[in-house]
Design goal:
Blueprint: E1 2-4, E2 21-25, H1 29-32, H2 46-49, E3 58-66, E4 69-80, E5 83-87, E6 96-97, H3 102-118, E7 121-127, H4 135-138, E8 143-154, H5 159-165, H6 169-180, E9 184-188, H7 191-207, H8 218-227, E10 232-239, E11 242-252, E12 255-263, H9 272-286, E13 291-296, H10 305-311, E14 317-326, H11 329-342, H12 347-350
Parallel strand pairs: 5-7, 12-13
Antiparallel strand pairs: 1-2, 2-3, 3-4, 4-5, 4-6, 7-14, 8-13, 8-14, 9-10, 10-11, 11-12
Helix pairs in contact: 6-9
């Protein structure tokens, strides 16, 4: 379906842009190629997004264009009866554009909204990208909500300078203790290592009583390996041959992300995770990475233990925002009321979430 956003459907600010074509596609890398390196990230690639074609989700991308101007957003569509909702995939996403013209971006976002309404979408949930700061370009058209701070390392200085100016003293001491304890960091690409990691990761999520959202089928990891070959590595820390912590690190251009991580709580040695991130940062730096995004805590509080741990590697932070759009208020309210009446015990836990009825 193609929506044309004409002068009757856009604001006065957008009026000089007569036509913005909007459509939904199952393939979009050719449009992503029209973006500069600093305007995009791995989370927008078909290879990454299509990892999430599970539990009835369909990976798609909305594309808005006029001449050389492109705005796009990959998302995961799910059905609700005869209608749909969507959310951006695990990690970061939301609309990005290859132009800084805010009037055109507003016109494109208006066309996107019209397309979703016309295609029977009830609502949509966005996870914006902290480093691309794309929440800023969407705030006039999408309800944008501050969620938490995330941490990133600047890997452009020499390693000694990073050690002395970004890694705090407590973290440096833990890294030294881990090294003295004989822990060894490695980059591993053996299939058996990935199987070990999956077990380690799942055990960690179970220990933390994580939502189902954080668990993945074994096929996810095989697809991850196939789709992102050359764009990730598995970093491990071992003690006497046993994997005690490990993580998947994704690389895209001169940026990288700390993706999934797990650790062995029973045999954890002080500083093992600190050593892993420090040595991974060194490996990424060797591979030409300039910005290493560690992400945020497990909640929005700045005293959250995970956020405090990540902050021990850098004082550089970026704000993470989420967003929500409701395209059909009546249908959305009806679905939510039905879910609340059938699941009163879940309302305190999930009642404030846009897609509450998915729980």
């Amino acid at each position: 379906m193609i929506i044309k956003c004409d002068h009757k459907r856009i604001t006065d600010k957008d009026r000089r842009y007569n036509i913005v074509e909007a459509f939904i596609s199952a393939g979009w890398d050719q449009y992503l190629d029209l973006f500069k390196a600093e305007e995009k990230d791995i989370y927008y690639t078909e290879g990454y997004v299509k990892l999430y074609d599970q539990d009835g989700g369909v990976p798609l991308c909305v594309i808005c264009r006029e001449d050389d101007g492109i705005l796009l957003m990959p998302f995961i569509r799910k059905s609700i009866g005869d209608n749909f909702d969507f959310e951006t995939p695990y990690g970061y996403g939301g609309p990005i554009s290859n132009t800084k013209d805010r009037e055109w971006i507003n016109a494109a976002l208006a066309a996107m909204t019209g397309l979703f309404r016309g295609e029977g979408y009830i609502c949509g949930f966005y996870r914006f990208h902290p480093l691309l700061n794309n929440a800023e370009i969407c705030k006039d058209r999408i309800k944008v909500i501050y969620d938490r701070k995330t941490v990133f390392m600047d890997l452009t200085p020499e390693e000694e300078e990073i050690w002395n100016t970004q890694i705090n003293a407590k973290c440096r001491n833990k890294i030294r203790k881990a090294e003295k304890a004989g822990l060894v960091f490695s980059v591993e690409d053996d299939p058996s290592s990935l199987k070990e990691f999956i077990k380690l990761y799942n055990g960690t999520m179970e220990r933390l009583s994580a939502d189902d959202f954080y668990f993945f089928e074994d096929s996810y990891y095989q697809n991850f390996e196939n789709a992102l070959k050359g764009e990730y590595f598995l970093g491990t820390v071992r003690s006497e041959g046993e994997m005690i912590c490990a993580s998947l690190f994704m690389i895209y251009g001169d940026g990288a992300h700390y993706h999934l991580a797990g650790s062995n709580n029973e045999n954890r040695i002080t500083g093992s995770n600190n050593l892993m991130l420090w040595r991974a940062a060194g490996e990424l730096r060797k591979r030409g990475v300039r910005t290493f995004h560690l992400g945020g805590g497990s909640d929005s509080m700045e005293d959250n233990s995970l956020f405090v741990f990540k902050s021990s590697f850098s004082k550089h932070t970026a704000d993470y925002y989420i967003g929500r759009s409701v395209f059909n208020e009546d249908a959305y309210e009806k679905i939510c009321r039905k879910w609340e009446s059938e699941n009163p015990e879940k309302v305190p836990l999930y009642g404030n979430r846009l897609l509450k009825y998915r729980y």
